[in-house]
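sorry for the late reply, my laptop died twice this morning and i had to redo everyting from scratch. anyway the thing you sent over, i finally got around to it. pasting the sequence first so we're on the same page, its 188 residues, then the predicted structure underneath. double check i copied it right bc i was rushing
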Amino acid sequence: MPFYLYQYEDLGKRIEFIQTKELKAIPRLMLKSCIEDEFKKRNREPLEWHMNEDDLIYVANKTGLVDSDKNLRDFKYAIVIDLKPNVSNNVSLYWLKDIWGYSYKEWTPLCLRLNKLFADRPEANANEFKKKFSLNNGSKLEDVFEFLYIQAGVKEGRWIWGQVGTVNGALLWPDAMKFFIKNTSSYI
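ok and here's the structure:
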């Protein structure tokens, strides 16, 4: 499940997306930075936290994932997930809008709110299509939620995705599930 940084421009009737780079360090740098910052403020476990789209881009810039020579005010960025990178002639791209985390001592279940850009769109050359594409402006993007976890928490961890394949399933205890339901119900 690769994460990509796209620069985008609103052209009135359409939105143009241009892929700028693969973000290989999402869990290691961005999530670690967020959890450490929040834990310093609250110093408790389990730790409830949230990053919206602006926070994600800010942390990407802070951790060096966005080219430092670019002024963030001059560009609009989106973090886009390719859910099916190895399926031939298929485009399944989702725009990452929010991450909610519930960090225990050694692991963190996550809830991601994504906007569906393309789901199983057939494309003869999917890799070329993913480099640059357009969307009709004004069409409502559908919210989709994904649950997964990282092997890291407020005190320790390896900062990698859990072991159930490249994308993993998170077991949610009642306290974490209540937190996710409380914070995502306005999108449902």
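The chain has four helices and nine strands.
thats about all i looked at so far, will dig more tmrw
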